[in-house]
Amino acid sequence: MATDVQVPALGESITEGTLAEWLKKPGEAVAQDEPIASLETDKVSVEVPSPVAGVMAEQLVKEGDTVAVGAAIARIDEGGTAAAPAKAAAEAATNPAGAGETPALKGDSTAPVAEADADEDHITTLSPAVRRAVLEYHVDPSKIQGTGKDGRLTKDDVIAAAQGQKAEAPQAKAPAAIPPSPAPQARAPAERREERVKMSRVRQTIAKRLKDAQNTAAMLTTFNDVDMSAVIDARTRYKDLFEKKHGIRLGFMGFFVKACALAAKDVPSVNASLEGDEIVYHDYLDVSVAVSAPKGLVVPVVRDADRMSFAEIEKTIAAYGKKAKEGTLTVDEMTGGTFTISNGGVFGSLLSTPIINPPQSAVLGMHRIEERPVVKDGQIVARPMMYLALSYDHRIIDGREAVTFLVRVKEAIEDPTRLLIDL
What we know:
Layout: E1 2-6, E2 16-22, E3 29-30, E4 35-40, E5 45-49, E6 54-59, E7 66-68, E8 72-77, H1 84-94, H2 113-123, H3 128-137, H4 155-168, H5 201-216, E9 219-227, H6 229-246, H7 252-266, E10 273-275, E11 278-280, E12 287-289, E13 291-293, E14 296-298, E15 301-302, H8 310-326, E16 339-343, E17 362-366, E18 369-376, E19 379-393, H9 399-414, H10 417-421
Parallel strand pairs: 12-16, 16-17
Antiparallel strand pairs: 1-8, 2-4, 2-7, 3-6, 4-5, 6-8, 9-19, 10-11, 12-15, 13-14, 17-19, 18-19
């Protein structure tokens, strides 16, 4: 009996996606709930599981096709028999020595072809991000212990295994004599090449949303700088105790999230949104934190950040960062934010004008910390300074309110005691 595999619900307001990659081929055995394909939506990549166990009978769409929620994309034969063993036996009969074959993902060229085929079958069950890492680092996924959910491999597992192989590899002995180098040959004229790559669905959505924000919102950016000495001193003093107690490192983001939550109480319009001719004010702070992912920037949401402790904020952001690298963020985790913080400083940015993430009304841009001369008590001294940028929708937020918000953030960062006494 054949069972259709349908596109699952992809989240609120998402009605279609693009079939990015097939993880199973026709004739291959499929376990129940095992991913058979990877879908790319406007926001995240989603794996499509098989509803039943059996054999992949037919792929109904091609990679790159747009498919609607509920559409059938494949058929699973519940009573079928996998064709892979028969195919392997036929290849073994026609090519017993494996001449001309290169084992997949093996560093040893003498490995049997059957073992390479087994590795290829294993790698198709991995997520796209992990599969790319396996191909890039040339490791055997069947010999790596996974640390993800249900023992599945993560990208970090692959990288760790690759580093372990490199450390264990014996160093080659130096040759007794260096053979003379061949005479240099005339270099061919440099070739001018171009490569055209279709934009991913995520990148297309990012481009559209950012351009819509520029066309719709009356955006303006105000700047300030902040002395990071107090925060750096606090981290240095308490980082070991903090990590020992909470199992997570104390970062800068926790301070800025708490500072923004404090400032939003004084300037609620920064945490508001515009819907039609109505301004919606929120009595909670759901912070969208910009995170770099393999396919572009994503903004998972730290919900009720104003009620969280430093440890809860740091753990949530760290978990989102790991999910972003693995491509496992869900749609629900990236929707519903009321305010955004973007930290371009981790990439070395000195100053920027971030773009609002609609329907939000403001975004805070953090930048790199560098020592600069400043005047303190009539003396020129070096201080670790950071530029802050607040882009805001002038339709909702007046200039006075924007400047006041940024000053409140500056005051809280330069004197973290304010975060404790709500001042």
